[in-house]
Amino acid sequence: EIVLTQSPGTLSLSPGERATLSCRASQSVSSNSLVWYQQKPGQAPRLLIYGASTRATGIPDRFSGSGSGTDFTLTISRLEPEDFAVYYCQQCGRSPPYTFGQGTKLEI
Amino acid sequence: EVQLLESGGGLVQPGGSLRLSCAPSGFTFSNYAMTWVRQAPGKGLEWVSAISPGGNTYYADSVKGRFTISRDHSKNMLYLQMNSLRAEDTALYYCAKVQVEMSTIRYFNYWGQGTLVTVSS
Fold first, then answer.
1. Which residues of B touch A (CB under 8 A)?
2. Taking CB atoms and an 8 Å cutoff, what residues of chain A touch B104?
């Protein structure tokens, strides 16, 4: 089973700053399989990025994803107040399990 | 508009059973794989189970042999039968729609609001 480790656990930044969130896999993952979600308190997760770098419909272009192999990154170029949330990476390979990272909390 | 409405959660004693339901709308249910994801209170997301359009099923090791995912195309419903429940199964259970592109790109693009399962005596 592929284990995803996200870092940092908590990231404290201010609006307007740049956020860089990391997701490291225990073994190589196809870029097609790497997904990022955002979750705000009391809400269901929301799809942000799939295929490591493709933004989902309606996601602002300040969100970008990159990486390959075992190292993937979610970057938020200029933080808006509504971006403070928990972010999860997930690997959705050809066969389950579709594991999630433990999450990164982005706080003000 | 795609919607997923979960139901069936509640309080159950350890060792008990519960069946969760998910009612999808706004898309052709029979064409898509579906999945269940859970989130224990204050914790992260955990993938639980998935089912293909044709009925192939997949489970996390933590629930294998205790949970059964199923779907009924005639009723347009997704289910999760949970048996031998443990305290560690306490969580908010989400159903989600699985989107597959070019057979290799896969992601969960729509989620319900979840149904809470509490396992306690």
1. 35, 37, 44-47, 50, 58-61, 94, 99, 101-102, 104-109, 111-114
2. 30, 32-33, 94
pLDDT tens by residue, A39-57: 999 999 999 999 999 999 9
CA dist B77 and B69 (Å) reads 11
- Whole-number mean pLDDT of chain A? 96
Q: A–B: how many Cβ contacts below 8 A?
A: 76
Q: Reply yes or no: is the peptide bond before residue A97 cis, omega within 30 of 0.
A: yes
- The two three-digit tokens of residue B64, written as one number: 């294998």
| Interface test with chain A among B22, B99, B107, B108, by most A beta carbons within 10 Å | B107
Take residue A56 and report the two structure tokens written for it.
Answer: 């989902």
Please write the tens of the pLDDT for every residue from A63-82. 999 999 999 999 999 999 99
The letter for the amino acid at B101 is E
